[in-house]
Amino acid sequence: MFDDFFLISFVPILTGLFSALSCTLVGNILVLRKQAMLSDTISHVVLPGIVISFLIFGNLGPYFMLVGAGIAGLTAVGTIVVLRTYTSMDNSAAMATTLSVFFAAGVLMIELTLGGNVHLDVEHALYGNLESLIWIDGKSLMSIFDPAARQTIPVELTRAIIGFVLIASVMLVFYRFLIVSTFDQTFAEISGVPVGIVSASVALAATLAAVISFDAVGSIIVVAMFVCPPAAARVLTHSLRDQFCLSLLFSALSAVLGYAVAGYFPILVGFETSISAAGTIATLSGVILACAILYSKRQRSYDFLDGHQT
């Protein structure tokens, strides 16, 4: 069963891992800004952007997808701002409206225009195609050092790694601006921090994370990784450094263990087929969040009792 690990599972696990880490990095900022719903919105509104990009350029390459999805993401953010400014909608209502309308438009575009001409459909948009990322020449770990074998590695893995490195590097360079504008916008403005540009950059980073992950892992994992690992880390610590470290650990655990459970556990217990990797990874991230909440409440109860005893 494990003989074909590098052929079947190596690339999907790494792709899911780096996609999850990218979403979690940006998700930490969104959770701190109380904009977690924005991640859900962006992960869904990139769909019509990708479809329109294909209709214009006739290509679903990563650069064309990024352009279309990036424009769709920024358009969605602009739509949310307009709805909040010129209507009585609050922030969550504006995001929910934008999410539903844009995603529904994307689904209709797929059904009416793309048909079976490309490997993109509604199910693909939700669940991705992790299970299909087969490394044709993946025979062992040493295949990584074989130039010919490396050429057959699915492009989704390369895209996920580059995206993670890019997002991590930018966040590291502008970390101080991000944190200051997140916790105290007034002080940030007085200090000369371009708050508007920082906010737009956060939305753009969330769009980038969603785009590089969308084709491989689908919107279900994208939304889960944006929110669940950062939220789980947040309830366990008030230290920003610890929050980022814990969230990345939870994200990695969800991606790797989730794929392993989906791919191997059903076969081990006697089933003939595996289960959805996207669903399992997202579910496991939710279980980790639930455990973190329960652990946090238990610790608070102990602290309360100890306080009364002293």
- In round numbers, the mean pLDDT is 83
The percentage of residues in β strands lies in under 5%
Shape: globular
CATH architecture: Orthogonal Bundle
Radius of gyration: 21 Å
As a percent range, the share of helical residues equals: over 70%
Number of domains: 1
Structural notes for this entry:
This protein has 310 residues and is mostly helical. It has one domain: ABC transporter involved in vitamin B12 uptake, BtuC, CATH 1.10.3470. It has helices at residues 5-8, 10-32, 36-57, 62-86, 91-114, 122-127, 147-150, 155-173, 175-183, 185-190, 195-236, 240-268, 277-309. Helix 3 packs parallel to helix 5. The radius of gyration is 21 Å and the shape is globular. The relative contact order is 0.17. The model has no long low-confidence stretch (mean pLDDT 83).
